[in-house]
Amino acid sequence: MIRRRLLVSVAAFGSLAVAAVVLAPFLGTTPIRLSRVFSRAIPFAENPDAQIFFVARLPRALAGALVGGALAASGVVLQALLGNPLASPFTLGVSAGAALGAMLAITLPLQLAFLGASPIPIASFAGSVGATAIVYALATARRRGLSTNVLLLAGVTLNAFFSALILFVQYLADFTQTLRTVRWLMGDLDVAGYFPILAALPFALIAFAIFAWLPRALNLLTLGADAAAARGVDVLQAQRLAFFSASLATGAAVSLAGPIGFVGIVVPHLVRLIVGSDHRVVLPASALFGAAFLVACDVAARSVLAPLELPVGILTAMIGGPFFLWLLIRRQ
Amino acid sequence: MTESWTRASALLSAETEDSRARDHLPAACCLLLAVLALSACGNNTNPSPAEQPEPARPQAVARSPQRIVSIVPAVTEMLFAIGAGPKVVAVGSFDKYPPEVRDLPRVGALIDPDVERIISLRPDLVIVDKGQIDLQRKLANARIATFLYALGGLDNVGRTIRELGTITGQARQAALLAGTIESRLASLRRRMAGLPRPPTMLVFSREPGGLRNIYVSGGIGFLNDVLEVAGGANIFAGVHRESLQVTTETVLSSAPEVILELRYGAAFTPEQIERDRASWNLLASVPAVRDGRVYELVGDELVVPGPRVVDTAERMARILHPEAFAR
Q: How far apart are CA B147 and CA B263, in angstroms?
């Protein structure tokens, strides 16, 4: 029964995600001729059509899929771990830590560029790791085990604290830097090439490998820690894995594309409406639907105002905000 | 939220959420634009066109003030250039030129002017930005005269210099300076007339080490004007904005023949400049990249709409049209 539902939903959401990634590079404001895009006769360096397809659009679609999938899955895991439908990948301070790292990399003349690559993703990933460590240390400080209440409170507080530090850094920065920091916070998938994606991919893959192990434990955790323990779940280990994998996925996504909002909160709820609440189905379906959703949003973001670019985070928030409110009202 | 953040987000969301509203951006956006241009490391932002024709106006200024505070880098340069420099008693955080300003007291800048410090210096004229409403009110309460600076296109440079001349009693020197700038610009324009105008993309900001968040000059503002005088055709001339962020796709599809990139606000090693230039190679099919016509211009003066704009224009012209200077 569950197996069939899993197969059907993975097939459906999976084809949606694949369709989005495959179609996205064909869509855009510049008309490109397919015969030229895939022509082997024209050298790549002299083929604008192929460059638009392979350098400008395809990396964006792949980055969108990776980020959307990671954020949506991480949202599912955190909502189950914290037992709170309002939890999102940005609840526990991980993204604020990533943002602080990025802000510092933009405003300080840091020379941590590797091979000429941008220091911003590196600093932002380091920031997310730092924030994860602090929140975890706080949540496990007082007693044996991991208190999800402390986790939530510490995360929210750390979020606010990091936000204050971010404002402080922005206030001290000169104005062009301030503009860049603000732009970073809106999210951006125009990664220009494959290197940034490849750099984030290993971390996302580790997180997804752990996600694959989690659903049964998450199902039982939503019944309460004691009930889960009574059914043979190693609660502490499950909580730890859930927290670290969600943080890792969030850190990888945010360092690649900035904190793109609402994907991690709206997608899980929407998917639950369709497939029910069993995490064995919700988790993979959300990852796939998150990927499709963000890729589609990005196609719209780079098209609607061309030649200007609409920051994709603004678009996801503009779609996600009203949608979430509708969900809220519908439920009551 | 700091003001800067709010203004910046207001700017960017307005920029992006409603393109049709771009001709009458909210006042907050103009403020941010002014903020950007006020810093020495600002960019080519100007108040929205609706507000542009209105030049800075002297505000009930006492005849020939003796103690001037200027927190606008472009105006500070103008004051020194017309011989009013000795009367400048304090400058803003981002003023770097001329060298005489290095030892002057600093009194904040657009988002963080130190009003108490300014008043304690007992100035009889304070140069502020038109958008600094709050500061203007406070100075008016303290009965200190202000000169409101408004950004504009290239023609605003000479106009502002003349106005400053009248106020400071240096009208003759101001007229001379403004005349020199305008005649040099006019002769540059004549020299470029008739030459082919290469489609050019003027970049003033992007993420180092890659091609993310590329900001370029739109079709209005002093940077656009400088590029036109220098014999280039701005590929985004049709975009009625001072600045816009473009995607790699837009760069590929608009196919500029020349890419001019402005670098400022820090010291750069030649290796750094070369590495940043090389990051454009990713877009190999862009004519500017293919033909090796990607140029990095380094200098804080590039983004200050002061007396040195004419040097910037000539520098750009030499890059765009070396043949015109060969003789």
A: 30
Q: Of A54, A58, A188, whose CA–CA distance to A120 is shortest?
A: A188
Specify whether the CB–CB gap between A266 and A71 falls below 8 A: no
The secondary structure of residue B261, as a DSSP letter, is E
DSSP B61: P
Which of helix, strand or coil describes residue A108?
A: coil
pTM of the predicted model, to two decimals?
A: 0.83
**Strand segments (E) across chain B:** 58-59, 68-70, 88-91, 125-129, 146-149, 199-205, 214-217, 233-234, 243-246, 258-263, 294-298
Return the number of other C-beta atoms located less than 10 Å from residue B198's C-beta. Answer: 18
Of A103, A320, A306, the closest CA to residue B238 belongs to: A306
Which residue in this structure is represented by tokens 């304090």? Answer: B90
What is the rounded distance in angstroms from the CA atom of residue B239 to the CA atom of residue B235? Answer: 9
What's the CA gap between A81 and B7, in Å, rounded? 37
The interaxial angle of helices A235-257 and A94-107, nearest 10 deg, is 30
Contacts of B32 in chain A (CB under 8 A): 179
Chain A residues lying within 8 Å of B243, measured CB to CB = none
Averaged pLDDT for residues A45-66:
93
Cβ separation A179–B290 shorter than 8 A: no
Please name the residue that has the structure tokens 């211009």: B297
For chain A, positions 39-98, list CB contacts with chain B under 8 A. Answer: 44-48, 50-52, 55-57
- A303 to each of A27, A29, A67, A256, A306, how far by Cα in Å? 9, 6, 20, 21, 5
> B47 vs chain A: nearest CA distance in angstroms?
16
Taking alpha carbons only, the member of B72, B76, B87 closest to residue B135 is B72
Predicted ipTM > 0.90: no
Ranking A47-61, A189-203, B7-21, B123-137 by mean pLDDT, the lowest is B7-21
Cα–Cα distances (Å) from A15 to A2, A291, A292, in that order, read 19, 11, 9
pLDDT, position A52:
93
Which pLDDT score, from 0 to 100, does residue B61 have? 55
CA angle B132, B134, B138 (to 5 degrees): 120
Query: DSSP assignment of A19-36, as one string?
Result: HHHHHGGG-SSS---HHH
The whole-angstrom separation of Cα B223 and Cα A143 is 61
Sheet-wide strand order for B88-91: B58-59, B146-149, B125-129, B68-70, B88-91
Backbone angles phi, psi at B130, to 5 degrees: -55, -30
Q: How far apart are CA B294 and CA B277, in angstroms?
A: 7
Of B79, B58, B59, the C-alpha closest to B69 is B79
